[in-house]
């Protein structure tokens, strides 16, 4: 089997890339190791501008023109005329994006895992039957997450990683909250993100400053103080890669978490995955294409990484920075979208 482009990973980045490629007539194959597209540990928050420009707004489970940021010393309420953040169900988003890619002409192979990359040929294995076959392609796109095989094939380390822990529990809440508390989350944060009939309660922190065990302990303590008893609920955790070292390597491209494009400051990865997937496709289609969208995304990513480094070095500085940013948001000197990957 031979294709012009092979994409490993059917997350938002891989599917966005596949859709654009197929729309331009390139023979495109997406290989996904899971049988079902969509499920992932994810709070499901995405900036409203990033959402409605690329997927139907009715995919939003709930949208929030008001954001609440709670620190140890203040509670900040930010309100805008349009929604700031929406929550999405990753399975619904995945199904929608897979449908769009297939409608454009891309092939999607689920339940198959790439075992080896040999030049322009991939050795893949069907996970249930253990059947193996070789597939070749002119271009390869790694959209295979934080533990990317394609990234490792390129010899790139992943030292800057975050940890996200999420509990998805039944509930119908209407307030989106971000909690900054260095005693519990170091230079990360805890979140309460309402969905249609569930609530995502979780925490994120860079791994260099806090272990997964300590983060989970802080999360359980904080949640219990707010009436959420999570010990008997199912926790799901995921590493989040923000160790960006490039996205274009001749005929190999990295997108989303595989490229380390998640935000080191917030852990948000859906928007940068979609943008980088689309831009990788446009670059494959036209080698002379100059991606201003990627330039903007990388600038914001580097700013977030520097902020994560600075606040992680000293907890006193982290507390002061959190209070100053919150005060700036309260006074309107800082806009909320300046802290997000979308702008």
Describe the overall structure.
The protein has 343 residues and is of the alpha/beta class. The protein has a single domain, classed as FAD/NAD(P)-binding domain (3-Layer(bba) Sandwich), CATH 3.50.50.60. It contains 9 helices and 18 strands. It has helices spanning 12-23, 48-52, 90-104, 149-153, 182-185, 212-225, 270-285, 292-313, 315-331, and strands at 2-8, 28-32, 45-47, 60-64, 66-70, 75-79, 85-88, 107-110, 112-118, 121-126, 132-142, 161-170, 177-179, 189-194, 198-206, 236-241, 248-249, 252-254. Strands 1, 2, 8, 9, 10, 11, 17 and 18 form an 8-stranded mixed β-sheet that branches. Helix 1 (12-23) packs parallel to helix 3 (90-104). The longest helix is centred in the C-terminal third of the chain and has 22 residues, at 292-313.
Question: Key terms for this structure?
Answer:
alpha/beta, seven-stranded mixed beta sheet, single chain, 9 helices, FAD/NAD(P)-binding domain, 343 residues, eight-stranded mixed beta sheet
